Amino acid sequence: MRSRGCRWTRLAALATLIVGVLTLPALAFGRNEGGDIEQYNVRVSGFWLYSYPTVSLQAAGHGGVIDFNHDFAFNQYSTFLGKADWKFTRKNHLYLSVAPFSQSNQAVLNRTITFRGQTFSVGATARGEIQATLFAPGYQYDILRGRRGHLGIGVQVDLFRTTGRISAAAQVTGTGVHQAASSSSASLLAPIPVAGPEFRLYLTKSPRLFVNGQVFGMYFFGYGNFVATTDYLGVALSKSVSINAGYAVGSRLRVKDTSSRVGLNLVQKGPIVGVDVSF
To answer: What is the predicted pLDDT for the residue at 30?
Structure first.
């Protein structure tokens, strides 16, 4: 499942790059038309995301990989994506993006799990929890900006704060094994600088229909890597409000923190619906 999700994420990122390159002639032409269709100082974007997550956590030396999808039946859930963009000059932006991940589920274990020195026996009822919140401050410079939209290059630092926890009450399993009350957790703070293109191309003048896309990524050899792409169509209801719908085809994070001996693999993907409000 993980390899399939990674493959789709890479394909989506490549598709976004290709579409971005294809918009260059239109954006360059729009720049020569004069004027600027996006006249705002602050833009706040919010999206509902119906996520199909894949998540695993490993505490090296304290047990194997915990596959939360398989071991605790993690499945689809609702969350949100948010972004506040301050365009302090015509082509310069400072922004902050936020994306929380929080899920828990109780399941009867179909295998014995050892995590951070605690053993959870096969047949025991246990709860698995993952909380991972992304805060991403960044800067963007618009290479092209005009009547048809913009094409920019962004650089941001993705700050992931992740906590995984497994707990079980004292019980006797169906096989007669006594499971003591146990709880174990592991935490990871992973700062990852990433960069990539972001564009918005207005396709029609009335109604103002546009396509928006971005892809960010970075690879850090043995430490980790990250790639994400978010793409959507939008309709501007007025100069300050637009409604949007599309697909976040993956944010894929792999981190291996040698200092705390914790490894994390987290993939999110799913449809998005949201709104932009500009001031």
So the answer is: 57
